[in-house]
Amino acid sequence: MSENFIYSTMGLYFGGTILALTYLVHRSEFISKFSFSVTGLGFLCHTASLVGTMMATGQVPLMTFKEAMSFFAWGLVFVLVIVGLTRGLQVLGAFILPLALLSLVSATLAPVKSGSLPPVFQSVWVHVTLSMLGTIGFAVAFVAGVMYVLQERLLKSKQFNVLYFKLPPLDFLDSLNQRSILLGFPLLTLGILAGAVSAQLTKGSYLSWNPEQIWAMVTWVFYLAVLLGRVTAGWRAKKAAYLTIVGFAGVILTFVGILMKSHQPMSLL
Amino acid sequence: MNIIVLGLNHRSAPVELRELLAIPESRMGEALSRLIAYPGIQEAMFLGTCNRVEVYAVVERAEWGFRKLEDFLVSTHFSLSSDELLPHLYRYSDDEAIGHLFRVSASLDSMVVGEPQILGQVKEAYDMALTHQSSGVILNKLVKKAISVGKSVRTNTRIGEYAVSVSYAAVELAKKVFSNLKQRVVLLVGAGEMGKLAARHLVSQGVKEVLLTTRNHHRALDLADRFQGHAVPYEELNSVLPRADIIICATGAPHYVIAKEDIESAIHQRMNRPIFLIDITVPRNIDPGVKDVDNAFLFDIDDLKAHVGQNQEERLREAEKAEKYVQQEVNGILSWVRGLEATPTIVALRKKAEDIKHLELEKVFNRLGEISLKDRMVIEGLASSIVNKLLHGPLVTLKTEAQSQNGFAFIEAARRFFELKEQDIQVVGNEESEETEIDIIEVEEVSEETP
What we know:
The complex is a heterodimer of chains A (about 270) and B (about 450).
Chain A: H1 2-25, H2 30-57, H3 65-86, H4 93-109, H5 124-156, H6 162-166, H7 170-203, H8 211-233, H9 237-260
Helix pairs in contact in A: 1-2, 1-4, 2-3, 3-4, 3-5, 5-7, 5-9, 7-8, 7-9, 8-9
Chain B: E1 2-9, H1 15-21, H2 25-37, E2 41-48, E3 52-59, H3 62-76, H4 82-85, E4 90-93, H5 95-105, H6 117-131, H7 137-156, H8 166-177, E5 185-189, H9 193-204, E6 209-213, H10 217-227, E7 230-231, H11 237-240, E8 246-249, H12 260-269, E9 275-279, E10 296-300, H13 301-308, H14 313-339, H15 342-368, H16 373-401, H17 407-417, H18 430-449
Parallel strand pairs in B: 5-6, 5-8, 6-7, 8-9, 9-10
Antiparallel strand pairs in B: 1-3, 1-4, 2-3
């Protein structure tokens, strides 16, 4: 049942993505409303699928990498829906939806790992949820960074095209970038701590020095530097945009690392 | 005689070229004198704005005149070669030239159709020509008419209402860098009209603070009063740069007043907070190299032009109305110009004299009652003789002087002396004019021979 929901979700997100990308280069405002509706429908299907899985297994569906990626996609679209409803920032869809779609597709490609986990593993979802929420913050920062770089290039090259008119002002994007990291960073910090505690409980050590953990630490340090650099060294505007794009590459590498060995339950542990 | 215009504008040439051709006010007199010193150029006017450089002239022959004006433009700047310049020039003569002047004055040829500055700029150019005595009967009449056409277009169409000015474009651009202008500090450098307009637009958006600086500090104080801002001594320009989020530069200086290094250092001090710069002047006042500084966003007049390209539908509709009106006015003034050729004036003068002669003879014959045919012929001969002898001098002078440098002044003078009204002067086409020419010669010959 929830499988069907996931495929409908993917189809709808795909449609929403295509429409959102068309909106970027087309003057029509109708396309954005259409895209938003399709995405909204996809979000409802996605939510139904998550709830369905939870009801069926009796567990929070955040135990495996597959589920984490699905949740990541869900969170991104949630942000998009909220921003679309409150700020009317339609252009965001074209940048967030491809990311959400990619994440959902990689979730379905990941090998299925289900069944119940030993009781000690039950607390894993806290670590996964917090880490994923933090990552969603970084993803939004990444998207803001990409939009900043695009808009900055358009302004510098004086290309006053459709995209230029649709992209928000630079200082808005810079502040969205900063706020997303400010929100994501503490969540990731808590997520890592929760992971360390879980690891201590299950494996007897906080850190096992596997590549994903090292990458996670590197990412954490990197974002800390980005936050501090803004205040102390003026790492804002263009520099901040590029840094968050690079930083998110680190996040993606971590995910790829996990995906490689995702036959294990949440290997961030 | 031809009326010609040679020039370039925002559509035909880039700003780099336009600014090379700009002539500062101090050198205008010399430039205009040089223009009318060319033999065959009878009148001239130089119109230079941010968006156009045009020379209007009354010349003996159009083709020849264009070549002289090209020489003149190439010689305005030492680094300019004719190969660089010529492809960007447009050339209009006679009705097209007049039409162009009217369209320019009516703001139909402006980068922003309907913008109000151009009318004042045409007036200024005309004042310059008057001051330096480079204009004459024809340009005086044409430019005055152009200004009045410009005014009526503004009052009779809604073209001005839709004029999304360049300064408005500046505000729109600023909003793509700063979402909220209310927290921003604006620095206005110089007191150029366009700069003040742009500053006014920004202030109306409610900026946090306005800083002003001009070379003449009293002027800055005066401006500060009007903008409720703070005047900054010109020497301290570099030290206030880091405080400004938006810098508008509109000085009359023929060189850069803000260098790339100044902005680099300002951005550094602002810890990479972006600066938005508008350079509204030609020649430019901000080093174009600033475009390469990270987090500095510099826009010159051409960039604003590119930005203005939207939402022109309404303006275009009003512009169509204005175009029709301008065309009517061009046709009206054309008959005046054609009337300025010697022939129609001579014809009208002869006709007027003949009419008076016939009228007076009629009166005399009525009063005398019955007289012999011989007496009647003697009296008629006397009248003709007086008329012909009196007109002989003026007609010969008109014919010869019409070809000279001040020909139109003579024609205009003749028309005023003899009170010839515009409707009396029948404009003749090319084919007919030869016949009329012969006619007059015959009349003159008769007058010579009449005892």
